[in-house]
């Protein structure tokens, strides 16, 4: 018995060493992954399709009775891609598996009863005859519709004692694609996302590597999207796509993420507390500093939108310090804005009122003291009337977007949030009307909230408020410069050391 265990362990070690020698390190953990769905997003030359083929072959040769289905959108593309690839991998790594190739039906069968079937989603009759599937590999998954994917998952119902899995391999295309929404934004349960680039592929020929590297000099945006596997866009972006994509690559992390809880007495909010939560809908990139003026722009979930959005800016320089994005009811959105405003030194809040005035009225009911005030001429009396909230009109929409484009062009580092940057990449100019708007299937909640935040800045101070006067210290110009550049804790230390300055 002991000898049998030692022999089995030796065989397992030989198998694993061969796996390591013939595969890229970045993909090795996936051979043992038990998630139902494995999503392989990668740039050109990353080796993701080669891995997917080896993954399928490992399963069918070691686990009897599998029926794996390999699909692409168009049947004729399979013969030159997956079909040819798997036959080559079988010859190189699984020659002793007793496989038989049926060129007519495009299928591969094994002595252990497993079989690999190939079909295009345009080959309806062949798909109808395929049943009892235990695994699916969808190559170039970005080519298929979400409805195609849903239909394929229904076919994963074959009888087997082994785990059933779906592999999706693809090069990213539009940032508004259903794959991004389903697996990257909302993280479908029991799925694992894996991202790779040509840098992960040690088997890539040097000539191919140089070709990809050369795009850095000839077409940097193409390099970011095709070589590095960043999500691309299909329309003409109104923001500098290269600069925005480069900012995304920095992968800036919030210092805190979560939401507020509170007690609602029916008249006001009390006992306001912050809750850290990795899935929270508020991302804080810079904590509030004492005396610093902030503004908050809000975009409600109106026509063509499905999220409430909020953007917090440091009004001294227009730098984004916090972002909010959530699906909820209007009153709960307003209360989160109320708490956020209080956290950021009773920030000036300007919420869009085009589709609903409820959030503004809720803030007023809660007696939030600093809302943006707009002026409009009364159509009857022709007198100016003042109202809370921002109203986006045909004559000011272009202006606030142009103002935001200018701010981002002059300093893209003023934007830190991934939600916002990704929306900027899908904010395009309509080819028919030239109107800047979200790409079909995309959203502009975060972009519009940021544009509103920039637009209302003139109703907020642009300088740090002086600390309360309680001393008679004389500060030099250099001392003032150091104080303004200091963090909140550093300011406290400087006040203690230098004393409070005269106004």
Secondary-structure map:
Elements: H1 2-22, E1 37-42, H2 48-62, E2 67-72, H3 76-93, E3 100-102, E4 107-109, E5 115-120, H4 124-128, E6 135-139, H5 146-154, E7 165-170, H6 178-185, E8 191-196, H7 206-218, H8 220-227, H9 241-249, E9 256-264, E10 269-276, E11 282-284, E12 294-299, E13 308-314, E14 319-326, H10 330-343, E15 348-351, H11 358-365, E16 373-377, E17 384-388, H12 394-410, H13 418-425, E18 427-429, E19 436-438, H14 445-455, H15 477-485, H16 488-498
Parallel strand pairs: 1-7, 1-8, 2-5, 2-6, 6-7, 12-15
Antiparallel strand pairs: 3-4, 4-5, 9-10, 9-11, 11-14, 12-13, 13-14, 16-17, 18-19
Helix pairs in contact: 2-3, 7-8, 9-13, 10-11, 12-14, 13-14
Supply the key terms.
single chain; 503 residues; alpha/beta; Rossmann fold; Nucleotidyltransferase, domain 5; eight-stranded mixed beta sheet; seven-stranded mixed beta sheet; 37% helix; 20% strand
Write a concise synopsis of the structure shown:
This protein is an alpha/beta fold and about 500 residues long.
What does this structure look like?
The chain has 3 domains: 26-232, Rossmann fold, CATH 3.40.50.300; 256-459, Nucleotidyltransferase, domain 5, CATH 3.30.420.240; 467-503, no CATH class. 37% of the residues lie in helices and 20% in strands. The protein has 16 helices and 19 strands. The chain has helices at residues 2-22, 48-62, 76-93, 124-128, 146-154, 178-185, 206-218, 220-227, 241-249, 330-343, 358-365, 394-410, 418-425, 445-455, 477-485, 488-498; strands at residues 37-42, 67-72, 100-102, 107-109, 115-120, 135-139, 165-170, 191-196, 256-264, 269-276, 282-284, 294-299, 308-314, 319-326, 348-351, 373-377, 384-388, 427-429, 436-438. The chain has an 8-stranded mixed sheet. Strands 10-9-11-14-13-12-15 form a 7-stranded mixed sheet. Strands 16-17 form a two-stranded antiparallel ribbon. The model has no long low-confidence stretch (mean pLDDT 89).
């Amino acid at each position: 018995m002991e000898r049998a265990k030692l022999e089995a362990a030796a065989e397992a070690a030989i198998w694993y060493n061969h796996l390591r020698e013939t595969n890229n390190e970045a993909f090795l953990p996936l051979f043992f992954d038990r998630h139902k769905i494995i999503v392989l997003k990668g740039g050109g030359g990353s080796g993701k399709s080669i891995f997917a083929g080896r993954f399928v072959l490992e399963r069918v040769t070691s686990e009897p009775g599998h029926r794996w289905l390999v699909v692409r959108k168009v049947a004729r593309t399979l013969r030159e891609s997956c079909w040819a690839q798997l036959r080559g991998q079988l010859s190189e790594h699984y020659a002793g598996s007793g496989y038989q190739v049926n060129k007519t039906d495009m299928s591969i069968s094994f002595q252990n009863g497993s079989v690999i079937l190939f079909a295009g989603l345009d080959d309806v009759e062949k798909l109808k005859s395929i049943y009892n599937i235990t695994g699916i590999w969808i190559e170039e998954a970005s080519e298929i519709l979400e409805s195609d994917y849903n239909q394929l998952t229904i076919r994963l119902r074959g009888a087997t004692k082994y785990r059933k899995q779906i592999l999706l391999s693809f090069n990213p295309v539009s940032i508004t694609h259903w794959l991004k929404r389903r697996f990257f934004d909302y993280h479908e349960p029991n799925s694992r996302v894996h991202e790779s680039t040509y840098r992960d592929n040690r088997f890539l020929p040097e000539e191919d590597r140089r070709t990809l590297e050369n795009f850095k000099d000839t077409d940097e945006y193409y390099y970011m999207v095709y070589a590095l596997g960043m999500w691309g866009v299909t329309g003409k972006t109104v923001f500098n796509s290269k600069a925005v994509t480069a900012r995304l690559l920095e992968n800036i992390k919030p210092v805190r993420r979560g939401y507020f809880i509170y007690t609602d007495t029916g008249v006001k909010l009390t006992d306001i507390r912050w809750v850290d939560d990795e899935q929270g809908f508020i991302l804080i990139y810079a904590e509030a500093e004492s005396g610093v003026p902030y503004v908050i722009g809000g975009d409600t979930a109106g026509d063509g939108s499905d999220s409430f959005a909020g953007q917090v800016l440091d009004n001294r320089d227009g730098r984004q310090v916090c972002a909010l994005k959530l699906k909820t009811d209007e009153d709960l959105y307003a209360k989160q804005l109320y708490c956020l405003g209080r956290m950021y030194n009773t920030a000036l809040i300007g919420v869009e009122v085009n589709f609903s005035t409820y959030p503004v009225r809720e803030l007023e009911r809660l007696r939030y003291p600093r809302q943006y005030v707009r002026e409009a001429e009364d159509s009857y009396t022709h007198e100016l009337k003042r109202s809370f909230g921002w109203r986006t009109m045909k004559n000011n929409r272009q202006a606030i977007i142009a103002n935001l484009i200018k701010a981002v062009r002059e300093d893209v580092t003023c934007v830190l949030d991934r939600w916002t940057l990704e929306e900027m990449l899908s904010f395009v100019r309509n080819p028919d009307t030239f109107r800047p708007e979200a790409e079909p299937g995309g959203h502009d909640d975060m972009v519009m909230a940021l544009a509103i935040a920039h637009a209302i800045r003139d109703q907020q101070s642009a300088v740090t408020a002086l600390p309360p006067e309680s001393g008679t210290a004389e500060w030099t110009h250099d001392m003032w410069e150091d104080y303004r550049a200091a963090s909140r804790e550093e300011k406290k230390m400087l006040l203690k050391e230098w004393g409070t300055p005269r106004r």
